[in-house]
Design goal:
With about 300 residues, the protein is mainly alpha-helical. The chain has 8 helices and 4 strands; from the N terminus they run αααββαααββαα. The strands form 2 sheets. A two-stranded antiparallel ribbon has the order 1-2. The protein has a two-stranded antiparallel sheet with strand order 3-4. The radius of gyration is 33 Å and the shape is extended.
Length: about 300
């Protein structure tokens, strides 16, 4: 009977040992599965983050252009992951805006001092601002007089109000250009195509008085007369001022006006992508080390 009890004890101990071993194996398998699931989720999140960061480097714009001929793609210095603004083009673009666009279109969200960010010196900015008169603070009698502009002032609008703008443009309201690149789908390409898209209307297309035919404007009829002409501005750097050159330069300038943070955003995005790639590698190595014994 002693032998039987000893055998029964051995059997029970064997069962307990198997039970503990099975429990540990199930726990390890569960932890391994949870760990692999967690790593898959982390990898998915990191990949999504990389794509989101890359997408954020592009040009956000609203679909405000309507139905029109799709503008041709143009290679811009600021396009792509590593694109930057061409400083010379920015200065020329300001010259085009000042000499051509400023007569009808405002730039109310940009201050004169912001021009120092694209290469203008402080003295140049002061001289540019002083060329315009802006309303001063009310004097002791409550009257508002004009004063020369200063770098802290925003670009002066060409019209005092919307009614004055319409009255001076046959009822059409010239849009402010501060965010025009964002306000139009495929903004840079669209605006470049619009500025160079004035053509003679087809024989079967009737163009009313005061309207102009433009291939890329929705409906092909636009109230704005062709704004650019060859040698329409005299570039300070002696670049030949063709219509194509002026269009490219002013589009570059208006893109900067709408997205002055573009270069910094791209630099930050690249740093984020590199960090996520490094973090992914480190997490993979840690995972392999933690589960080395299980594998």
């Amino acid at each position: 009977s002693g032998q039987v009890r000893e055998n029964e004890g051995s059997a029970k101990e064997h069962l307990r040992t198997r039970s503990r071993r099975g429990w540990r194996e199930r726990l390890c398998r569960g932890l391994q599965a949870d760990g692999e699931s967690l790593m898959n989720k982390i990898r998915t999140a990191l990949v999504a983050g990389v794509f989101a960061a890359t997408a954020s480097l592009g040009f956000p714009s609203a679909n405000a252009a309507g139905d029109a001929v799709h503008p041709p793609e143009h290679h811009w210095s600021f396009s792509g992951l590593f694109g930057t603004y061409d400083r010379a083009a920015l200065r020329r673009g300001f010259e085009v805006y000042k000499g051509v666009c400023a007569g009808c279109h405002g730039l109310r969200l940009v201050a004169y001092r912001n021009l120092m960010d694209i290469g203008f010196t402080e003295d140049e900015v002061k001289a540019i601002a002083a060329e315009v008169d802006v309303p001063a603070e009310p004097n002791e009698d409550g009257e508002i007089e004009d004063r020369p502009g200063i770098p802290a002032d925003k670009f002066k609008s060409p019209f005092a109000n919307e009614n004055a703008a319409r009255a001076g443009n046959n009822g059409a309201l010239p849009p402010d250009l501060s965010l025009i690149i964002k306000a139009r789908h495929n903004g840079a390409n669209y605006l470049n195509a619009l500025l160079t898209g004035y053509k003679d209307a087809p024989v079967d297309k009737k163009v009313p008085d005061g309207m102009y035919y433009n291939t890329y404007f929705p409906g092909q009829l636009i109230a704005m007369a062709p704004p650019l002409s060859d040698e329409g501005v005299d570039y300070a750097d002696k670049t030949k001022a063709t219509v194509k050159q002026q269009a490219e330069d002013v589009v570059t300038f208006l893109t900067w006006a709408a997205q002055p943070e573009l270069e910094e955003r791209k630099r930050t995005g690249i740093k984020v992508i590199l960090f996520l790639l490094l973090l992914t590698g480190l997490l993979y190595v840690v995972k392999r080390r933690i589960w080395a014994d299980v594998h």
